[in-house]
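quick one if you have a minute, typing this from the bus. theres a chain ive been looking at and ive put its sequence and its fold in token form underneath. please have a look and point out which stretches look like helix strand or loop to you. anything you notice is useful, everything is just below.

***
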Amino acid sequence: MKSRTKRRLAPADLDALTRRALGAGVRASAEMTDGFANAVWRLTLDDGRDVVLKLSPPPELEQLTYERNLLRMEAAAIGLAAGAGVPVAGLVCAGFDDPVLGGDYLVLDALPGTPWNQSAPEGGDLRRDLGRLLAVLHSVTGSEWGYPHAGLTGETWRAAYLAMIGALLDDTERYPTPLPVPAAEIRSIVTAASVALEEVTTPRLVHFDVWPGNVFLDLEGTPAIQAIIDHERAFWGDPLAELITPTIFDEVREDDPLLAGYREVRPLELHPVRLDLYRAYLYLILLVENGPRQYPEEDYAPLRDLATVSLVKALDGLG
């Protein structure tokens, strides 16, 4: 989707960047437009390698508070996920505060597979496999809660969650956002309900953006999951939050193969209040992020409408 946060680079700029970072120029390039925030290109280098370049927004462009240093969190999460045995697009190199372009970038291995949302094979077995992989991801534990790279942390998961959603509500003042419920009322509802988060005692790595576009499939023979990509929204928190994006705008059902696959690896009990807290957080992100990004109205309107209705439903469940 078009977004004001996506940087535009000329071919000469792409070539200069890869020569500095990898010692090889660009033979061919194509922008990948499916994402919502960072500019992404698929590049063929003159040494024959195929890579993906991901570039942060211009440093002078304000973003949401939680979006500070997203690519740094992604770089860390890729290494941790790969170390646990989760298939990812390998990190070739990372550059932070690049002195020429400014901002951060990642260079990743290009994947030969196909995004799940562009192939639509039968999903039962794949969802079960995805559940297993998410359980493996959640075996990665940390020493902090929340978004350390963005400075949104807490001594407990409850404190970190309130810092994270509180930052989003504060962002509605910097970027006036039409909300179906006043920000002060949302803050009051989630604060009261957040006592349910006290039972979460171990920080685990949560991707929090596992929708079909972020799952690559190998379609040679029986479809199989090739990699989980786009770890930029990852945080340290409650594994239950991971169920929200694979079931976005819907409910988590006990008969979902995703849940069955997950439970083959590690236990996971559903908790309605915690699930609604995480839904409220995600749907609020989808509404507030239009402030800095300024999506085209005709593209954004259906997403905004779904997020608005779903936020109200989540808040009603909490209230």
